[in-house]
Amino acid sequence: MSEVIVAKAGGTSNADAAAVEQSLGWAERSDIFVVSAPGRLDGSDPVHSKVTDMLLGAHASYASVGEVSSHYIDAVTERYAAIAQGLGEHALPAAWVDNIPERIRAAARTGQDAASILGERLQAEIYEALGFTLLDPVKSPHNLGSD
After folding, report:
1. What are phi and psi of 10, to 5 degrees?
2. Beta strands 32-35 and 6-9: pairing type?
3. Local structure of 54: helix, strand or coil
4. What tens digit of pLDDT does each residue of 30-72 get?
5. Nearest to residue 13, comparing CAs of 61, 83, 74, 76?
6. Which residue from 12, 31, 61, 4 is spatially nearest to 135, judged by alpha carbons?
7. How far apart are CA 84 and CA 119, in angstroms?
8. Listed residue (21, 134, 22, 130) closest to 86, CA to CA
């Protein structure tokens, strides 16, 4: 049996474009690279919060008033736009960023779990745009240990 190298980039390692650039070395040396949603940035502006916290806030806002607060939509979208644009030549297409608000609304309507996982999904799509293969556990042909 051959050795499989698994690495993980946590929230701080995905917090902004510079952190993603640094994490690419780990990703390149790994067979499987697990990413977290972007973590907290320095500063008090809402866009500096942990993305997962903002997405959970989006769900809570939907659950309490029947719609997602634009505060959460704008902050999460701005955060991913900054990461995508900060990657320069590797930037994702504008359509990817433009679709984030509706993805947030859909996840918030679906439930807390869907809202929570969206951050990791979006971050994985960034790595996919950088040339890595996205391994979706729901669609994977590999046994990911669900037994």
Report:
1. -75, -170
2. parallel
3. helix
4. 988 899 999 999 888 877 899 999 999 999 999 999 999 999 9
5. 83
6. 31
7. 14
8. 21
